[in-house]
Amino acid sequence: MNTDDIQLFRLPKLYENMEEATIGAWLVADGEPVTVGKALVELITDKTILEFESTFSGTLLKTYAPVRSVVPIGYILAAIGPDAATAPDVAPENELLLAAAAAAAAATVPVGRPVSEARSAKKPKPGKLRVAPAARVLAKKHAIDLDEVAKIATGNVIHRKDVEAYLTARSDD
Fold this sequence. Notes:
alpha+beta, CATH 2.40.50.100, 2 domains, four-stranded antiparallel β-sheet, 5 helices
């Protein structure tokens, strides 16, 4: 079997400041046929939720990103190829991408200002609550009042990370 016939489906950069996406539902199961333009997976980002279409035709050999996983740009989401092909092991490459994304996120944490000051300086203005689509989906799933999340949010827009922090804080109580 020629591995050149296998195409790796990677998470593309959908807009300028996109760094990651959350995997929503897989719309095609492993072993099912795929055609160019067929919706493969639901991607959830801070700015949008969309069904992402395949750019390859063949059989979906393997999905590498489970539902609700957060993956960086370039992460190999799936392998598509001939029906009898064996999906390649892409774990080492994906682990490197995850490690690099984690290191980049750690490097962007601001240093020098106490957390309490940073939070109080960036409170959303009353009546101006803005919520990213991914945060709205997660809050709805857990029946969370977004006004409560806004009290701990670090900016003028509530992001998925803010809802996750609220969930963590609530579970610690």
